[in-house]
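Same chain as my last thread, 501 residues:
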Amino acid sequence: MASPADSPTPSRQAPAWPLAVALLLVVLAGALLWNAELVNDVAWQTWVARQLAHGITLYTDIIEVNPPLWFWAAIPVVDLAQLLGVSSYHVLIPSVLALDIVALLLVRRLCRDLQSGMLIVLGFPVITLLAFLDVFGQREHLTLIAIVPYLVLVARRAEGLAASRTIAIVCGILAAFGIALKPYFLLVPVVLEILPLVRTRRLPFRTENIALGGALGAYALSVLLFARAYFTASLPMLMIYQGDRRPIAYLLAQPVATMTCLLLLSLALYGRPRSSIAQAALIAGLAFLAAYFLQGKGWRYHGVPAMGCFALAIAAEAERFRRGNLSLAARAGIALAMLTIVCLAVPLVQGMRAKDDANALLATSDLHSGDVVAALTGNVYWPVPEERHFVWPSRSVTYSPLFYAVQASRAKQPNPAMATLIGDIRRGIVHDLACNPPRRILGDRYDNRYLKTGLVEYLSTDPDFARLMRAYRRGPDYGEFTTYDRIAPVGDRPTNCRTIY
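reply #2:
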């Protein structure tokens, strides 16, 4: 027997035109993305998924520190792309747009009887797609899309309104997908329960909670069964070198921090939001903001879920706006809230205009599809291999773990585990290049913050690497890259080389 919270209630019919406009905006986003450059991490995601689809093992054959869900989710994308004979990116785009449309339809349905909906529906594709075109497909971007229906459902529960069991289950599963993409997001569904607890003084287990918890539990079990090396190889490696953490001043200088400050100041002037959706979005946004600071990198896409939730809160509260009875302070608060839109627009324009891989493209402009090309760098080289269809010989996307490990070993007391990790990475580089000798190697001349020298020079202190590099002749420089072209065989091919797809 259904509980009252899960029983459908009569709802007034929402006008159709906001949905029609929103769907047109989704199509516009797809058109803008169709010929756009791949996001570097998304290019790596599709490359890894293609290897996994052919039986390569994640965390052993491929070095990665992120949980497996993002890569698993891309396997159907690369399989369908291969079946259709198109690029993975041109399957990924409609896949993410389909996810966005599902979330949009759920939000439209859940907004009924909440005195919110028209602006939220109209703004949904702007907030979840158009504002973040430059980070399309990143995990945080997918999390933003997946979490919005859930937080709207939480707002509906806080108002004492019902939702069908089917919709609650779908919202819970979608939210679980978004949260499982990064462990840092586990805080979000927990703090969202504050709203219904405060408003209803009750905290019963609801259908969406059970669906979310069940999906997260099933995912955790699947990782234990099918990706145990994430716990035995990936996390220990990450714990040894700890990664790269930026100073707090750098984190505070990013657009997400500016947007948060403006929004909190506007709330101090305007007062508590009247819209339950705005309240839920603010709570979720602050939880995502905590995840941004916990990660400590300050990268733009890490702030996407927080910025999207804050923008949703503004859109939801704008529908409750009544101009006549507002004080001067409240009007100033609204003006400050509107200024936060700049925090969305400026980084988007900067991201769309940036061409970080321009020198890598120049350095490989004379090469052809199927050529083996390596880049010994911790900086931007991807998405060049996926876009140009080069063979990528390495088992990792970047050599930054080596940089961080060397920096940590110099800053701390001697650590045998750190020395072992550095040795493993160096031997892995030689093994990968000997298994699939690159036609050209790009060496980063400038990325010497951690090694105090270029990566090629650092690796050349190893006799095996130096012997391999005798088969290469230094070529011209392209910005930060020095090129090395193979002019002779590199020697005997090692055993247990993996096939690259």
